[in-house]
Write a structure and sequence with these properties.
This is NBD/HSP70 family sugar kinase. The chain is α/β, with parallel strands linked by helices and 420 residues long. It has 15 helices and 14 strands. It has 3 domains: 5-80, Arc Repressor Mutant, subunit A (Orthogonal Bundle), CATH 1.10.10.10; 84-200 and 383-415, 2-Layer Sandwich (Nucleotidyltransferase, domain 5), CATH 3.30.420; 208-377, ATPase, nucleotide binding domain (Nucleotidyltransferase, domain 5, 2-Layer Sandwich). It has helices at residues 13-28, 34-41, 45-58, 122-137, 178-185, 194-206, 263-267, 269-281, 288-292, 299-307, 311-335, 351-364, 367-370, 384-400, 402-405; strands at 61-66, 76-80, 86-92, 96-103, 108-115, 145-152, 156-157, 162-163, 189-193, 213-218, 222-228, 231-232, 339-343, 374-377.
Length: 420
């Protein structure tokens, strides 16, 4: 790519602004021919031609196919050169690591997965993540990395990229997750809660940039990603949506966070496993008893047993849904979403879980807040957090930090601003 010194940030502001807009119009598909760009921007034909040529010379745009003719010569379309960079996404869970690479348009090129206990700590975990990323990158042509996103199963201060007292992540509190990835890939890095990535992945899947949506993830733990008009609502410090540690009324069950009565300690996957194991010890008849002879139970065992009609498993799933529905109803009253998506391992329980959540939400929420509300299960695609991570990176790169690094033709850690 070439760099035109006249396009440096702070010089010829109107020119830079129009260039940025033209690139984003083509990137989003809002305008893909020179006549369309002129119509949307109000710029003259000569100015549009000049700006497009500059965007092509820098490397952002390229010529595409010919578009439909309106009577004269068919105009040539423009395309955003999404192949010029890669986005790396690392989605970490309590018991797994999933990584992927995408093009700049968010398309997942490749991904890989391995089991992993995040309680092994940040240094070992990040080394394992790097190794898995290297394995994926090795299979593809070398292309510059434009951004890295790391999703964590715990509270994250988005501005610093540091986990804050994550209950299931010993040794991670205040750890500088961002720097090792910046040094390894020489690219800007964003660290966020995994539920936020899932919410953004749902936004991408629905192709609804203005959606009001709650993504409620119930796996080993419990969390929620909140989208307001398509934007993640993180709150003042990144704690918004951390519903796993909301107090459940009349519960004094100890939680892994050190408090008692948390939603996660009653409705989370580890809580259901705990209760199932206790029921088996107490002699309750269940198909899960045979599973414990083969090894430790997990949430998937319980959801599969519930689908097969096991009464203990069904009761545990319904109990989880009952208390989760109460907490979700409070979010509905305060946040008034149009869609609630239930995801995580619990989603495989299907209607056994979903029907109880729906009932509690409609019982406890205001009529106006539920009038147009849809409550549904996630598609349970393992690439969801990868697509969500790509959405986060693209949003940060092209909506927030673009003006600072546009003239360089590619981002770098030095050009990244404090995240908005």
């Amino acid at each position: 790519m070439t760099t035109d010194s006249t396009l440096r940030f702070g010089a010829q502001t109107d020119e830079v602004t129009s260039l940025l807009r033209i690139v984003n119009l083509v990137r989003t598909g809002e305008a893909t021919t020179r006549p369309e760009i002129g119509k949307v921007t109000g710029l003259g034909r000569g100015v549009v031609s000049q700006r497009v040529d500059q965007a092509i010379s820098i490397g952002f745009l390229g010529d595409g196919d010919f578009g439909a003719s309106s009577g004269g010569r068919a105009p040539r379309t423009l395309r955003f050169r999404s192949e010029q960079g890669r986005i790396i996404i690392c989605a970490l869970g309590a018991a797994h690591i999933r990584v992927g690479i995408t093009a700049l348009d968010g398309d997942v090129i490749d991904h890989a997965h391995r089991t992993w206990d995040i309680a092994q700590g940040p240094v070992k975990t990040i080394n394992a993540v790097m190794s898995l990323v290297d394995d994926v990158l090795r299979k593809h042509p070398e292309v510059p990395v434009w951004g890295v996103v790391v999703g964590l199963p715990g509270p994250v201060d988005f501005a610093t990229g540091q986990p804050v007292a994550p209950p299931i992540m010993p040794g991670w509190n205040g750890f500088d997750v961002r720097t090792p990835f910046e040094e390894r890939f020489n690219a800007p890095v964003w660290v966020d809660n995994d539920s936020n990535l899932l919410a953004l992945g749902e936004r991408a899947r629905r192709r609804d940039s203005l959606t009001d949506l709650i993504y409620c993830k119930i796996g080993s733990g419990v969390g929620a990603g909140l989208l307001s008009k398509g934007r993640i609502h993180r709150g003042a410090n990144g704690a918004a949506g951390d519903i796993g540690h909301v107090r459940v009324s009349d519960s004094d069950v100890p939680c892994r966070c050190g408090k008692v009565g948390c939603l996660e300690a009653v409705a989370g996957g580890w809580a259901l496993v705990r209760d199932a194991e206790q029921a088996i010890k107490d002699g309750v008849a269940t198909s899960l008893a045979g599973r414990t002879k083969k090894g430790a139970l997990n949430l998937e065992d319980i959801t599969l047993a519930a689908q097969a009609g096991d009464s203990l498993a069904i009761g545990l799933i319904q109990k989880s849904a009952h208390v989760a529905g109460e907490t979700i109803s409070a979010l509905v009253n305060m946040f008034n979403p149009g869609v609630i998506v239930i995801g995580g391992a619990i989603a495989s329980a299907g209607e056994v879980f979903l029907a109880e959540v729906r009932q509690r939400v409609y019982e406890l929420s205001l009529p106006l807040a539920t009038r147009d509300l849809t409550i549904t299960l996630s598609v349970n695609d393992e690439r969801e957090p990868l697509r969500g991570g790509a959405e986060l990176a693209r949003e940060q790169l092209f909506d927030i930090t673009f003006p600072r690094w546009f003239a360089d033709g590619h981002p770098s850690p030095e050009r990244e601003a404090v995240p908005a």
